């Protein structure tokens, strides 16, 4: 086929291949242990597989309702009430979506117009900025404070202007593994009082939080809940990232606009899997036990790192562990990540990839959602540095 002859004015001229794709591809090419991309190397619960077989053969393979089957929306709403004391109407305020990234993109698309400003915290998950820019918005960055990645709320206040349309938050945070405290949320709530600013709260790691910390969903705080989209992930919660299943909660007025875009974007989300998840969610033990499960993996990984020259940065949430390598190398993190993959057989993610200007604190991120055998092998490589 002949090449398109007219010049293309890209809507995303600065966007290349995501760092996750780059590092996973490099890991495959060099047969390296892949602790870069965030997915488990173990399978989901056998019960989920049984339910998939059940509902695939139950004659439920046609279009479900656009917003999702009511049984699953009810389960999601029940969970929010039980965990966060939040009240959502499953008919008008809960939507099942094909993954959390989609939910975030859809919420941004529904509200951000050309010239609107969207505040986000850096290092920031890499899907947020393109979603803002492709809709004509302007990303405004507030840098989290290294090494604990705390929030400078005065900097957030300075970043708010009459053009601020939205603020995107992520707790537990990927890639920093930090979490918002209740005090953070109260400050945030007070700051937004008497504004029309919308919040998109990425809470996909809501159940992966450690050391006695408690997940502070925006749904807990009425002044935030009234203006917020809460986005979460079945994939992260149930170790089925390839299913690309998630959900969004929001007040009726916000969700009404969200669904306008949703119906012409994907229209529906996988039908049989919704029935699977609705039945599986009837027992909350599967998600309530996650924190202990993953904390054990984190602690196993760290125990096998004893003697390493890497500096451990606290992992309060997510299934990632960050290490500062300033005592090991003066290389830029992207260079070390590539060399570590090619020469040592271990793939990671450089945190500079999550800054718009490539800022580098010499930190690499590793995923510990892996078998103990995989984690022990990875730790042995890191001890050798």
Q: How would you explain this protein's 3D organization?
A:
The protein contains 15 helices and 13 strands. The chain has 385 residues and is of the alpha/beta class. The chain has two domains: 19-44 and 288-383, Aspartate Aminotransferase, domain 1, CATH 3.90.1150.10; 47-285, Type I PLP-dependent aspartate aminotransferase-like (Major domain) (Aspartate Aminotransferase, domain 2, 3-Layer(aba) Sandwich), CATH 3.40.640. A seven-stranded mixed sheet has the order 2-8-7-6-5-3-4, with helices on both faces. The chain has a four-stranded antiparallel sheet with strand order 9-10-13-12. It has a two-stranded parallel ribbon with strand order 1-11. The protein is globular, with a radius of gyration of 21 Å. The N and C termini lie far apart (49 Å). 45% of the residues are buried. The model has no long low-confidence stretch (mean pLDDT 96).
State the helical fraction. 25-40%
Q: Which ranges are low-confidence, i.e. pLDDT below 50, for 5 or more consecutive residues?
A: none
* CA radius of gyration: 21 Å
Order of helices and strands: HEHHEHEHEHEHEHEHEHHHHEEHEEEH
Report the CATH superfamily of the largest domain.
Answer: Type I PLP-dependent aspartate aminotransferase-like (Major domain)
The number of distinct structural domains comes to 2
- Corresponding CATH architecture of the largest domain: 3-Layer(aba) Sandwich
Q: Helical element count? A: 15
CATH topology annotation of the largest domain: Aspartate Aminotransferase, domain 2
Residue-averaged pLDDT: 96
Q: Report the biggest beta sheet as strand number plus sense, adding barrel if it closes.
A: 7 strands, mixed
Separation, N- and C-terminal Cα atoms: 49 Å
Q: State the secondary-structure class.
A: alpha/beta
Percentage beta strand: 5-15%
* CATH uppermost class of the largest domain: Alpha Beta
